[in-house]
Specification:
With 377 residues, the chain is an alpha/beta fold. It has ten helices and 29 strands. The protein folds into two domains: 5-105 and 233-312, FAD/NAD(P)-binding domain (3-Layer(bba) Sandwich), CATH 3.50.50.60; 110-231, FAD/NAD(P)-binding domain, CATH 3.50.50.60. It has a six-stranded mixed β-sheet. A five-stranded parallel β-sheet has the order 11-18-12-13-14. The protein binds flavin-adenine dinucleotide.
Length: 377
């Protein structure tokens, strides 16, 4: 094993940043992060930002100071290709022994005409634009397409904070179709009480500048449409010569795609012992912790340990905000709604502490502290 082991992490979202934070205490690693953004972002707080409930600084942490504290080198560029032992960025090339791809996911509009002109809260830029539109135009009728976790939280927060008619449009016959029936029924009841209009079993055929056209040809006028349904692999993943499943990077139980190339978080397809990992922050964090432990094993010449999925598609885990300081918790088939304010406080605390942890110093013995920028070339 090379000494030091040069690791290139592509993508500084939750999976990449967590991997770097947890690897900072491992000696014998030289880490480079390739990420074009200036900050680490907590997407789980985007719906709250949309509703004006949190500030920008609550949901993001500056990346360069974080990398300095962790002793990692930051290349503020987009990766465009990965070859054996080399990550090619827009201007620079990073030579390395191990590559960890953590590039997340992009919004999927499924080729529906006009859908790309809607607002999306899948990115920070999209969320800022949507909030600005709400503040400037005070829309009277807002259509939210999709009733997954993001759609439900966006509808709840807007129903709570705006004097507007909120609609949720869902193609399947119930809200939150990826969750158990009991969760859908409970959340439908809560949104009904909040005055949200729910159009289930309704497919969107086209989005026009001031209306949405449905599969049966009918349409509804709206002042704002927010697209929350569907994700797809980012552009980089499409071009990578790695095993894939439905376009995502297919990894083995060690989170390895091929040779010394690994993948974590939303961009990876992770099925271990028949449990398919959900594309959630909870899973991204756990996978990062696992990868950090396995990097430490590599340095010590110990065999890698297989990953075990916790939040799988047949055992979903989530804390879902339902507005007015309330939330429900889902763990597998169990849906907990009481005390709803306590579940909301827990969710809010978890989401905000994710960001805070990237603003603080890592806990490690003073002897191991390396000067910032030790890996600069
Ligand atoms: C609105 C919303 C609400 C959510 N709420 C929850 C929740 O309540 N609970 C939960 O568990 N999960 C939630 N999620 C899901 C969770 O945020 C994601 O699963 C998690 O962020 C995935 O982490 P990641 O590191 O894989 O991807 P990301 O956090 O998306 O990070 C990917 C990073 O890769 C970078 N990147 C992309 N392409 C390149 C490239 N070519 N070169 C270099 N860098 C690149 C991007 O800039 C980005 O910084 C939510 C998601 C959204 C959108």
């Amino acid at each position: 094993m090379p000494d030091p082991l040069r690791v290139c992490v592509i993508g500084g979202g939750i999976a990449g940043a967590e991997l770097i934070r947890l690897s900072a205490k491992t000696s014998g690693l030289e880490i480079t992060l390739v990420e074009p953004k200036r900050q680490i972002e907590c997407q789980a707080l985007y719906p709250d930002y949309l509703g004006g409930l949190v500030r920008l600084e609550d949901l993001s942490a500056p990346l360069q100071p974080f990398c300095n504290r962790m002793g990692a080198r930051l290349v503020r560029e987009r990766a465009v290709a990965v070859n054996s032992g080399r990550v090619i960025c827009e201007d620079e090339e990073v030579e390395c022994d191990v590559v960890v791809v953590c590039v997340g996911a992009e919004q999927n509009y499924f080729g529906i005409p006009g859908a790309e002109h809607t607002f999306s809260i899948n990115t920070l830029e999209g969320t800022l634009k949507a909030r600005e539109f709400i503040e400037d135009r005070s829309p009277d009728r807002i259509m939210i397409v999709g009733s997954g976790l993001t759609g439900i939280e966006a509808a709840s927060v807007l129903a709570e904070s705006l004097d507007a008619s909120i609609y949720v449009v869902e193609m399947m016959d119930r809200l939150l179709p990826a969750f158990p029936q009991s969760t859908s029924a409970l959340v439908e009841k809560i949104l009904y009480e909040r005055g949200v209009n729910m159009l289930t079993g309704t497919a969107v055929k086209e989005v026009r500048p001031d209306s949405i056209v449905f599969g049966d040809g009918s349409s509804l006028d709206c002042d704002m449409a927010i697209w929350t349904t569907g994700i797809k692999p980012p552009a980089l993943v499409e071009g990578l010569d790695l095993p894939k499943e439905r376009g995502w990077i297919l990894v083995d139980p060690y989170l390895r795609a091929k040779d010394e190339i690994f993948a974590l978080g939303d961009c990876a397809w992770i099925r271990v012992e028949d449990k398919l990992a959900t594309k959630t922050g909870i899973e991204a964090e756990r996978q990062a912790k696992h990868m950090a432990d396995n990097l430490s094993r590599m340095v010590r010449h110990h065999p890698l340990v297989p990953y075990s999925v916790l939040a799988s598609t047949d055992n979903p885990m989530a804390l879902i905000s339902t507005g007015c300081g309330q939330a429900v918790g889902v763990y597998g088939g169990l849906c907990v709604s009481m005390p709803s304010w306590l579940i909301h406080s827990l969710k809010s605390w978890i989401d905000k502490s994710i960001v805070k942890r990237y603003k603080c110093k890592p806990k490690r013995p003073a002897a191991e502290v390396a000067p910032a920028g030790r890996h600069s070339r």
